[in-house]
Design a protein that fits this description.
The protein has 126 residues and is an alpha/beta fold. It has a single domain, classed as Rossmann fold. It has 6 helices and 5 strands. The protein has a 5-stranded parallel beta sheet with strand order 2-1-3-4-5, sandwiched between helices. The radius of gyration is 13 Å and the shape is globular.
Length: 126
């Protein structure tokens, strides 16, 4: 796993830091972005080996960014793990379970995250 570049996109700085510390402890290099637009720009700058992507974010949500990545020939092969707390927020947001089912993410991890479960998902995809 050493040397793999993983991009973490989440609007919660504490979540980004928690995931970053776990990934770095496993020998990965980590890029950070705090919303979908920033994440999109980061992907153009340096192609990640894997993306960990939050669903509910400002400017561009994770469902939209994932769908765009999977629809583009240049990024469709990059594995995407969606982090989602949507199930508990569906009644009060514009997000839905149908959005998640229609997204071609490679894996879904519920929030609050279990870092070992997340690591298993990362390991299986890269």
């Amino acid at each position: 796993m050493t040397g793999k570049y993983i991009l973490v996109i989440d609007d919660d700085p504490d979540m980004v830091e928690t995931i970053t510390l776990m990934l770095e402890s496993k020998g990965c290099t980590v890029g950070k972005a705090y919303d979908g637009i920033e994440g999109e720009e980061s992907i153009k700058t340096k192609r990640p080996d894997l993306i960990i992507l939050d669903v509910m974010m400002p400017r561009k949500d994770g469902y939209t960014l994932c769908a765009e990545l999977k629809a583009s020939a240049s990024t469709m092969e990059i594995p995407v793990i969606l982090l989602t707390a949507v199930s508990e927020h569906v009644p009060g947001t514009r997000y839905s379970h149908a959005d998640g089912m229609n997204t071609e993410a490679d894996e879904y991890i519920p929030k609050p995250i279990d870092t070992e479960g997340l690591w298993k998902a990362v390991s299986s995809l890269i």
